[in-house]
Design a protein that fits this description.
The chain has 176 residues and is mainly alpha-helical. The chain has a single domain, classed as Arp2/3 complex 21 kDa subunit ARPC3. The chain contains seven helices and no strands.
């Protein structure tokens, strides 16, 4: 990995962590929606990362959120699961149809529909695991599913907005 890519990923990590801790952890709309935008950091990591570094990065990402929110490892577990599944879905959904190769999954690299599906699946798995652990019971499965689905949709919309606003300059530089 080149140094510019490392710096860009560190910047994305810091920005998404700050947004999560300062803004989105304080948003809980209607009791059902809790956006976790920081999962986008895991989804956008370089495609050439191995499985072990990916899972360690995902673990560290979740641990940082757990430490700042005083949680008992819920984010860490959910992020590690997302880090594991990321490689599988990245190969099956995005990389499979691209001959040129993709350095970083985003809405501007490859197909918008493929990235949307990839991101939606990662967010759904994250939210299902996280909200199940948070409830620590399957007694109220309807509320867990509803909360996970609504949180996934809102987080997905915020992730697309984030990429549209902050990555459009990257798209224009790549065309030049």
């Amino acid at each position: 990995m080149n140094s510019q890519l490392i710096i860009r990923n560190i910047g994305r990590f810091v920005l998404l962590m700050l947004l999560q801790v300062l803004v989105f952890n304080n948003v809980y709309l209607g009791g059902y929606i809790n956006p976790c935008l920081y999962v986008l950091f895991i989804a956008m990591l370089p495609t050439n990362m191995g499985r072990i570094p990916m899972m360690l990065t995902a673990f560290f990402t979740g641990l940082c959120i757990d430490i700042t929110t005083n949680m008992a490892g819920f984010h860490t577990f959910a992020c590690t699961a997302v880090g594991y599944l990321r490689g599988v879905w990245l190969d099956k959904i995005i990389i499979r149809d691209n001959e040129e190769g993709i350095d970083m999954p985003c809405i501007y690299n490859g197909s918008y529909q493929q990235f949307s599906l990839y991101l939606m699946l990662l967010l759904l798995v994250f939210n299902l695991i996280y909200h199940t652990l948070l409830a620590f019971s399957l007694h109220d499965i309807f509320n867990i599913l509803l909360t996970a689905l609504l949180s996934t949709i809102v987080t997905w919309l915020l992730a697309i907005l984030y990429q549209t606003l902050l990555l459009r300059n990257t798209k224009n530089k790549n065309k030049a």
